[in-house]
Amino acid sequence: xxxxxxxxxxxxTAALVGACSSSATATATASSxxxxxxTSRPVSTTVLREIQVAPDLRLRxxxxxxxxxxxTFRWEGTPLDANSVLVEMADxxxxxxxxxWTPEATGLLLDWLRDQSGGSLPAMVAIDTGYHVDNLGGxxxxxxxxxxxxxxxxxxxxxxxxxxxxxxxxxxxxxxDEGLSLTFGGEPVRAIYPGPSQAPDKLAVxxxxxxxxxxxxxxxxxxxxxxxxxxxxxxxxxxxQLLPLPADVVVPGHGDRLDxxxxxxxxxxxxxxx
Length: 274
Fold this sequence. Notes:
44% of the residues are buried. The protein is built from eight helices and 13 strands. The strands form two sheets. The protein has an eight-stranded mixed beta sheet. The chain has a five-stranded mixed beta sheet with strand order 9-10-11-12-13, with helices on one face. Helices cover 24% and strands 27% of the residues. A hairpin with a 2-residue loop joins β1 and β2.
């Protein structure tokens, strides 16, 4: 089946470094000795510091060069938070998994990065985790800044069919059933499609050397939330395919919890749903 192939490929190549020829920022594979001796940069559920970039944008540092980015959007007056993950890879490239809600919030994140880097934006790529606004709403700001944005072919199709016409699609498109693997200075990052879940195209993004998993909206940080596009029958199977991934930190699409127990929590919530 399609989701099985993507995850099987990931697990079978966990010790290898992938490459994507369409990305100018993907670096050559590090040698085995270089990989073994590279300084580990672990992440933790303990927040090292919290940075309030703007009233509706905050960062929680969870390791060296690793942040949970939380943006707030007011939907009919009700504030709603959504998470993204920002990781500085081994060669200094920053990977943004998911985007803040809006181009404006994403622009503020880029401004913060410029300030941290002495006035210029560091090398960067982004990975959209689905076609919903809380997964790619910041694409316009990223593309305007010249940042490559990766997303699946299914995300592009759903955005054309169902998405807000104001949303901008990714400019680097990959087959969802193959997933995506990029490396930066020998450090890999992978986008995984375990099957339909909270939406037909939802991706998880995994940083194996940091044991960091961004589950996007398929991983629940609290209650069930929006199920308008959910495949309730397939969702638990998708989550079970993430269970074998070693993770010390799991970041949900919404909510403040960061512990690995969120994977089982999601299964428990789904099991209690009629």
